[in-house]
Amino acid sequence: MKRKIFLFIIIIFVGIQFIPVQPNYSETFSKDDIIEATKAPADIAIMLKSSCYDCHSNNTKYPWYDKVAPISWWIASHINEAKEELNFSEWGTYSLKKKKHKLKEIVEETKEEEMPLRSYLWTHSDVKLSKKQINRLNTWINSIRE
Ligand code: HEC
């Protein structure tokens, strides 16, 4: 009986790997990207790319385990939700009002250490923003607020 249950689980696990998940990947670096659109300095660009772009852009860097179902489904739902709220790759297409609102949200979310998502930091602890980085990011944000 135990063997049958084990076999059943293995079959399900292998089976779900064939359910396609659209990877979040774009060939081009859009001119609407916040880094391009705001001419962001290099240190800010690195910070955003390494700590935020996996979810809030059209390009995710996937470690191998993120490609394994059901983890891949969980990741995809986070990315969809995150991009709906804020997509740095499409920054240039946002209205002035939306930009202002999102910049305010970024300051709040990073100050409260809500972003990057805590569950993401379990496997990406190196991209947690330090107090110094948060200050730097928010000083830059204040400088681009029109
Ligand atoms: C692992 C994925 C992930 C990463 C990495 C991530 N976020 Fe998010 N972010 C989300 C999700 C999911 C939401 C929507 C749900 C929520 O608010 O918790 C969100 C929401 C937000 C919001 C709220 C937008 C609004 O209008 O309410 C802001 C601002 C934000 N993120 C900024 C950032 C910044 C800045 C970074 C990098 C320092 C970052 N996020 C990194 C997943 C992520």
Condensed summary:
The protein has about 150 residues and is mainly α. It has helices spanning about 1-15, 35, 40-50, 70-85, 95-110, 120-125, 130-145.
Q: What is the fold's blueprint, element by element?
A:
Layout: H1 2-16, H2 34-37, H3 42-51, H4 71-85, H5 96-111, H6 118-123, H7 131-144
The structure holds heme C.
Please provide a written account of the structure:
This protein is mostly helical. The protein has helices at about 1-15, 35, 40-50, 70-85, 95-110, 120-125, 130-145. It has one domain (about 35-145). The protein contains 7 helices and no strands. Helix 5 (about 95-110) packs antiparallel against helix 7 (about 130-145). It is elongated, with a radius of gyration of 18 Å. The structure holds heme C. The site of heme C has 20 residues, from helix 4 and helix 5.
* Coarse morphology: elongated
Number of domains: 1
The total count of strands amounts to 0
Q: Could you spell the SSE succession in H and E letters? A: HHHHHHH
What structural class do the secondary elements suggest? mainly alpha
Largest sheet, in brief, is:
none
The low-confidence runs, each spanning 5 or more residues with pLDDT under 50, are none
| Helical amount | 40-55%
Estimate the strand proportion.
Answer: under 5%
Hetero ligands? heme C
Taking the alpha carbons of the first and last residues, their distance comes to 67 Å
Query: How many distinct helices?
Result: 7
Rg over CA atoms = 18 Å
